[in-house]
# Entry
Amino acid sequence: MNTLFAAARGKTSKRRICFPITSRAYYGRSQLLLKKLHRHPDLELELMLGGSILLDKYSRHIAEDIEAGGFTISASLFNVIEGDEIGCHIITITHDLLKKLDGLGKKLEQFSLETVRMFHGDARAAGFTL
# Structure
């Protein structure tokens, strides 16, 4: 069967498995499964790192440990804050999340005040009085 996925895999008949790893603990719990997937002759394992596992303060040198275990890391995904802190030149983000970046660092009291004002405005627009 010639499907888009078969064409994307190229000439290999191996099935590609993308396995996300987001923490040192998750990597530790998943090692047996990862080793079995890695050894399977019909599978091509790709590891994708993201979240706290990429931060030195939580998982120092974990990428080196993973590669020393015989695995290849296919991708590393940083969030917006982490990407900015390490100096990424291009950070891809959806418009919905981009609109919310102004809220980073805003105090809870400010969110509460804005919420009350929004509810008050909505109530007045609907003809209610408070």
About this structure: Helices lie at 4-9, 24-39, 56-59, 62-68, 80-85, 95-100, 108-125.
